[in-house]
Design a protein that fits this description.
The protein has 136 residues and is mostly helical. It contains two helices and no strands.
Length: 136
């Protein structure tokens, strides 16, 4: 009998006999029904269409990236060519400024407007063939 500690209104607790009793458990097992072939084909087709669309979009982005790369390389080549042209123009300007002093140093005379320059026809030009010279 349980101790009441002075209170007689307490009921005695029943002993739990869970180890002696057998409790029956029921579990519901649901069997998955296989999808019909038509529905499987529909899902497969929709997945294939999605993959094709994603592939097309990815291909376009790759193409755009390639075009941007080509544009950048052409721009760098254009900049390099423009630098080369500027350097050639500077060199040309320097040569134009230096040509008169070099010619005077070599003993050449600058032509005036009133004095024509005469050049012999045979000098410096090998227009006649050796056979023509033999006949003359």
């Amino acid at each position: 009998m349980a101790q009441t500690r002075g209170n007689l209104a307490i009921r005695e607790r029943e002993k739990q006999q869970s180890s002696q009793q057998y409790r029956q458990k029921t579990t519901v097992v649901t069997r998955r029904v296989e999808l019909p072939m038509r529905e499987k084909m529909l899902y497969l087709t929709s997945v294939l269409v999605a993959v094709v669309l994603c592939s097309i979009v990815a291909w376009r982005y790759v193409h755009i990236y390639d075009l941007n790369h080509q544009i950048a390389s052409v721009q760098s080549q254009t900049n390099q060519i423009n630098k080369d042209i500027a350097q050639a123009q500077r060199d040309q300007q320097e040569l134009r400024q230096d040509i008169v002093p070099k010619a005077l140093a070599l003993g050449l005379v600058q032509a005036t407007e009133h004095e024509p320059i005469f050049v012999e026809r045979n000098s410096g030009e090998g227009s006649q063939t050796p056979a023509a010279d033999a006949n003359n």
